[in-house]
Design goal:
493 residues, alpha/beta, Nucleotidyltransferase, domain 5, five-stranded mixed beta sheet, globular, binds 5'-O-[(R)-(carboxyoxy)(hydroxy)phosphoryl]adenosine, binds zinc ion
Length: 493
Amino acid sequence: MWGSSTRSSRIAAIGVTTVHGFTSPAGSISSRMSRLRHVNTNAIMRAFTTNGNNSTSTVDVDSSTSADITKNAKRIEKRKQKDKRQASAAKRSKFIGLAKAVDRGSFPTYQPGGSSGDIFVAKSGLPVDISSTGGGRLFTVLGIESSCDDTGAAVVRSDGVILGESLASQAHIHEEWGGIVPGLAKTAHEENIDRVVNDALQQAQITLEEIDAIGVTVGPGLEICLRVGCEKAIQLATEYDKPFVGIHHLEAHILMARIENPELLQFPFLALLTSGGHCQLLKCLGIGRYEIIGGTLDDSLGECYDKTARLLGLPVGGGGGPALEALAKEGNATLIPLTIPLHRRHDCDFSYAGLKTNIRRAAEGLAIDRNVTSVLDLSRKDKADLAASFQNTAIIHLEQRLERAMKMMEKEDISSLAVVGGVAANQELRSRLNAVCEHKNWNMVVPPPRLCTDQGAMASWAAIERLKIGSSDDPSNQTVYARYPFSSYPNIS
Ligand code: KG4
Ligand code: ZN
């Protein structure tokens, strides 16, 4: 079952990671030249010393030297090729995460309001009386989210109060398949979208005429699913002539840390985003301005939770994280020895693919020890120990990468951390990272657990943040993006 398509493995394909400086490995031109010089001298010396008598002829020396030089030239060429291969392998390993991620010209990038990142233009208007300076009356936004497997809608007021929300879960559909089936997810979105939007409006006791603006997730995500929400939002914005905002899903996760009180988490800050499709550390400079300082080289943490949950036979329909967390509470977190990923690597990147294999092998080994036919037949106690040990190792990896990023940020006087994304709902992770922040005297903000996972309020709130700075989009020109990398703004601090 490990190879089958899950929610996370599909979404992982749209993840984002960082650009790093690439240092050329051994094999630079100068080092190769000095090796060449060294090798040639040796060849000439050998030609003299291997000749037994003193009648060394120049011809002998010359032919022997030129043969050696040819041999050496071949060896050097071979080494050159090897260096080249190693360099490109190293580069590739960096680009594994990057491929999902950073603007390399092949994907449209998220640039709200302009490529400079600091000039925002309201293309489809702003709610009445709302100025870019943040004055005016409170306004309300209808938000729609359908990037993956749950259809969400919410009405949120510009002071962060959620007036109404509705979420149609698809857990029961995907449970049957052991992961997300995009076609089924799209059909379920189509079936639920109208009801979910109406429920949110009804709960908020507001009509579409009274709504001030509409926000909808437009990427990254499953394209066919995104389209359902986006088309609905475009239709409503056009019919009711409302300002429209196309939301970046990852920005929406990040900004949820500000919904309760933006004053408590002011830019710039560090964000740790861990969800089903992403695992990143980002320097957050402002709305639409994010610098990725670490990303996953392979799997996301949510994906790893989901697959480990499946390995242990736990429910995975709405993501296996919650079930695995619950089981881990019964287990011994230090009983199963697991390797901490990238322990010796001094950067802020993540890797969870090795841990996924590590836990599977440990579980299979335990099944053999216990003389049971499969991991699924292990006792609850054994499964709990596996779950707890997995979670502990996964979090240690997070802590290590986070602490390195915090050190980097401290040099720039940044000392606030937002922990966001679906996995941030995990209580063990929250309390462990909180302890790190307390120890380092950092301010940590994490949304309430139900606002960490995907729901409609994230689209509403992200739209509110965009509208407050005068940024909106043209609904007649809006499309959806499976991949939607952040633009980098290297010159803006
Ligand atoms: O942010 P999210 O709802 O969707 C994406 O944008 O991917 O994150 C879903 C991920 C799933 O992998 C799910 O298993 C994980 O978040 N998750 C958790 C918990 N709640 C959700 N992982 C660990 N512990 C949890 N309590
Ligand atoms: Zn999400």
